[in-house]
């Protein structure tokens, strides 16, 4: 298939070619994969690309999206690529044994394997001169094995491309890791302590006096935005794609007096006695928040083994049933969070399916053969195209993660969607869900400010039709 790049895609392609180490903070559905592949093809044609390319991505994107995109387009399909993700260890090791003698190749690997790959090729032995990190925000944790592994080999690469639509899902503290991998600390500091001390002050502290919250110093967001503007660009799909309307519909649900009494008892005492003589205990604030969220959904695990489920109410299930009945046969994509949500939903809606990552199942969804599909945001939230199968999305519960929240909506609301998209939120009034949503909006505001600050300035473009 012949690929025709739109103006914004051409701009991004040229940015990659002219800035060897950079970040593309592009909204879901803007074609990050096509843009990156096109840049590498043109660099190779201009004799400016040398050595292997390593693409690091979430496993489903590594197995499905990148191979599909390479073979889809006329100008990329002749490139040599090897899919390491999903291979048995023996087969993967055999391929890596020959990597140094192989001609320039695109190697595609899932992010979980990076520490082992770096262990195999440490320092100067690193054979991949060009690295692409898809969904780069997954390496924001500066203390993780993945980040430390990438940090150790970054100096031995020529080109380094980071792709993400959510560069700072939890605030500007997240951006340091991504920029450090690009520039080695030139712009935001050589380590997280230097960055933190320069731009943040301690907030809440533990009883021992150690801060566990850091607050951005007023005005320092502008400094951070300015510091990274030459190596990062951002774009939002609303600015460049002619998409149908997106509607958000919050469905407020009420607990019965008995449900509320149970909920309030756990909230106040952090203990919920059971009829069998046992009890559900919330040992700290995080555990309590999770337990209250479960009760808001209508069920809770009886103990840490999570083998027994106690059901409290079915208000959200009934609300989903009403949405299904009112959809007039239109397919619905519903995101759940807890495993007991999936169990109860699967039992209550026998004609529905649970997304398992199978490409054939995704194909049936996009052919409108599945009336109701349940999915977890972490398993279906990145790089998968659901937009051809439906335009109705339901959050059985809103995820805490801004990244997963935005990615989930982006499964339906992306290029190729032809119907107005409606997002339903099943929210229990007066519960911890109020705080989850308000926190999510705060995170969204901080990230939007960052994205706006590094927004590409490419003139007035025609929208994509």
Automatic annotation (TrEMBL):
<dbReference type="Pfam" id="PF00176">
    <property type="entry name" value="SNF2-rel_dom"/>
</dbReference>
<protein>
    <recommendedName>
        <fullName>Helicase ATP-binding domain-containing protein</fullName>
    </recommendedName>
</protein>
<dbReference type="GO" id="GO:0005524">
    <property type="term" value="F:ATP binding"/>
</dbReference>
<feature type="domain" description="Helicase ATP-binding">
    <location>
        <begin position="13"/>
        <end position="185"/>
    </location>
</feature>
<dbReference type="InterPro" id="IPR027417">
    <property type="entry name" value="P-loop_NTPase"/>
</dbReference>
<dbReference type="InterPro" id="IPR014001">
    <property type="entry name" value="Helicase_ATP-bd"/>
</dbReference>
<dbReference type="InterPro" id="IPR038718">
    <property type="entry name" value="SNF2-like_sf"/>
</dbReference>
<dbReference type="InterPro" id="IPR000330">
    <property type="entry name" value="SNF2_N"/>
</dbReference>
